[in-house]
Specification:
By secondary structure, the chain is of the alpha+beta class. The chain has 21 helices and 35 strands.
Length: about 800
Amino acid sequence: MLVSQNYFYSKWCLKAHRRLKNVAVTIEWIPDMKNLITRSSAMPKELSPSELKSIKRTFDMFSASARSRLGSGALQRPPTAIGACLMTLDGNNVLASGRLTVSASLLIFEPEENGSNQSICVDTRDVVGADLKPVQDDLSAAHTRDMITIRLKEGFVSRLENKRKNIESDDEDDDKSQGAASNGPSARNSAGNQLTAPGGPPADLLDEDGGDQKSSFQSPSSMMSPTSNNGPGVFVLTSNTNSMQNFATHLHALMAWYQKKDAGSNARLTIVELREMLRALGMHVASENDLRQRLQELQIVVDKDGGGLDLQKITKILLASEQFNKVQDGRYFVATSLREAEALRGCIHLRQGRPLIEGKSTQVALRVGDTRIDATGGFSEAGPYQARQARQLFKYFNSDLEYDDAEVSLLLAGLKHNDMKHREVFFEEIRSVRRRTKKDWKASPISPVFTTLDEYILLARRAVLATVRLLIKVNGMRLLDAFRAFDSDHNGLLMCSELYGGLDWLGMDLKPADIHEIVRHIDKTGDGRVRWEDFEKALTDPNEDDEEDLWATEQRTQTTFTRVRIRPKMMEELWKDPRLAGIKVVDDIPIEVLREIKIKPKHVDSFHSHAIWDSKRSNARKKISIWEPKLEKLLKIKRNKMRICLGHYASTSYRAPSKRSCILLELTDIHTSTVFKSSNLDDAHLNHLVPHPIRYKMVWSQADKESKFYAWKPIPPNKNYVCLGMVGTTTHDEPALQLVRCVPVGWTVESKSKPKKVWDDSGTGGKRGSMWIVNSFGTVIFTEGHLPPQGPFYELKAKRFFASQGYVKGAHSLKPDLDNQY
């Protein structure tokens, strides 16, 4: 790329009165057609260690071992469906007849319509074994049939069994209550299939809004041996020989992929995968035949089926990238002034039919943007790669900030001979002579140009995103399905741990550093969390027709499911909660100090004048109101005491609850006189001993025009602390962290009190919910549905004790325990 000195002179950057306008007209100039040659790979080119490492990582991501042979692998096979019978464990009795289907995501047995059993629906990732054996048919001694025994992961069946019991109890309760219309089909999927990913939390199979629904899971308890209730699930199916063998072959292929048994060192790319890789580098390949022809010119052999491209061949292609992309020496792209362009155009017209320069076969074309406005006769166009790269370099000279991924790769390829510091200095100097707002390039798509050494580093990242996109597709999911499945806490934001768990579920073997790199690339806000808009933009294929893709996805899976709930895979988060930044905490409290802090329960003195919420306008049959205790400032003579709130309280009327039934926690420093303020009970010490929660989780909500209520469960910092109550609000915003405090688990014992229901939403619409009291403190516990909440719940272990009893040294940490958050 060249620049006319009449258009721009580098010393202008030092003179503020000169202003530079964008490149309007460019010249594509070939001084002599005799010297125009395509660059060859005859001259050896060396790749740096970092480039080789990036290419190796990219190859691994695109290769068969990392992507399960996406061109022809098990994940892309159409669903296998056969007629089958569900058998008892001994294989002697038929429980139900129906249809058995296996796809990339689901294994489903659907009984016939007249059967009484519900469907069995499991995630294919939960299948750990499928044993096929022939058995003799009882009706004909000469006829045999195949029987397959399918074994599931440890604990999977027990989760389904627990959910089934809850659903059955909920259905009985539903028959007695009104307002069930709000829980109709609009809140459920037509097939009703629900999944829990391996290792997922029990009873976490909820619909999209987190509400109740009727499950299509058949409890496999009747198909399990009596001694295996806590072990892996087993169920037995039978069908005719040929059908069951095909089914077993498909299932074994999927198991091999998910258990990574076929990953090895003999990885190869296919033509399809190579095109995807080259497109990420901005290399244009018109068709598969065009790609084969270019590979033949480089003397790279490809198998008949389009495979056989190993790492050595891929590296050879990238070493000869200029020859592969038909980059020509002797062709120049020039930014010129309008007056020069006008004069040159006049020369072209005056020399029509004659050489532009006597004695030379010079060719020239004038362009405005991508449009050619004039050219000499017989002008030869540049190859797509060289022309596109020139356009990106002119955009860079114009100080543009907006580029897509392929354009950034082209720009990096053109600038990689300049170090990152010189690129930034040149860019800033050019911007200094332009009359426009100076936006920060660090938050724009051009930022990798100044922070990335070469295009191969970006290629590895894009290889990951391309792999994610394809694996989501072959699993029969839309991008929105995947985002919802990864988002385990349903807050519309993907944390690093949630994305890590989702990509691991897809079968990708990544490291935490890779996840950090992906999140930094996708997240446009820079706070370390991925929003749906960014997720969609990063993974949408711009060259794919959306409608055609959705149709193909539906045809491929032939299976409808609502959601796959995937448990996060814990790792360090990039996002830091700003609410925790200003909290002061002492590093440690000496055991001598803890022995002088007395802990005891104390009745609430008063409540705030108005309830947080009541059921007046909710149409509920029962009365209820939620109250926040008032923490009175103690008299000066009692400055050595401090009371803490454990949660909100419920009243079965619209008046404040009885003070005698509502308990707070009081801490007293017996070493300090009542007339002096205790330094051991200041905020820094309390935040260590009885810290605030690190966040809240919404457990139930009821929102209509007249009445809005949101129930929140506090999440303690780590497993060394527990919360003894919950809080309620009338807005969707998360409550303040300072509202309640947690207590050390060593101060408590599990409550033996039976949960007592104080209210349910019978008579209202929306998701069903209820309120309970589970311990002697009287704090309210909210739960979805009308069944008792699942514990454990806690009580103080004694009426009076000292803080040192049960305290674990070093229990508090400013770095939250990720396992405790999900």
